[in-house]
Design brief:
Blueprint lengths: L19 E11 L3 E10 L3 E10 L8 H4 L12 H4 L6 H8 L5 H25 L6 E5 L2 E5 L18 H20 L2 E2 L8 E4 L2 E4 L6 E2 L6 H17 L7 H14 L1
Antiparallel strand pairs: 1-2, 2-3, 3-5, 4-5, 6-9, 7-8
Helix pairs in contact: 3-4, 5-6, 5-7, 6-7
Length: about 260
Amino acid sequence: MSFTKPLRGPSVDWPDGEPYEDEPRGTLKSGKEAEIFLLERRFATSGPRLLAHKRYRPRYPGKDELREKGFSNSTSYRGDAIYKAGWNLRTRDRRAIEAGNRSRYGHELAAQLWPMQEWTMLRRAWEAGVTVPYPVERTEDGFLMTFVGDDEAAAPKLAQARLSPAELESAWEQMAEALRTLTRAGLVHADLSAYNLLWWEGRLVVIDLPQAVEFTTNTDAFELLHRDVANVGEWFARRGVEVDVEGLYAEMVSVAWLG
């Protein structure tokens, strides 16, 4: 059985308007704010597709609510104001978000905004041509995207993949190109590391974009970009790849300003 692979660009081999049934296949990953579930979407004529359903947990769940909704862990939402600085909010909402732990309304608002933020950034990255999972559709508490892997296994994180020297060189070239493409699109991943990248069939796939920011709305964007470049650059350098972190960052700054 084969499934849709992550492809670059705005087009993908995806059925349009075809009837389907969804079959849950278990939990893939559990994080602080969200869990990722495996879903098999069985189309009437074009065959099955494996999807990853990222679902954000409610911030203040009622008794047994998490268990009833299929979640396994309690919620711990990040409080990093640096990533929220570019969010377009009303004054009251902005004050609530900035109040952090002092505002239950701010917590609940952030819980609603994180999945919207990640969906928007994933779509923008996809449309720009970055190799990311194809964004399929929004859901009530998150979104669906194509699963990276096959019916036997999920794609490993880059940090856990066993790459040959040639594969490491290829992965770094793909990483640099992904950074260029994101930067041309006006975006910074802002949490880039070998744990937010997948390696599958010779391709590097960027994942986890809830903290992504825009150059035009976030005053810390260039600092976050430098941290991204340094994080991934130093990881590759420790594995023998020739990397010029500052040179690549200077190139990204030029791309950001000049396109």
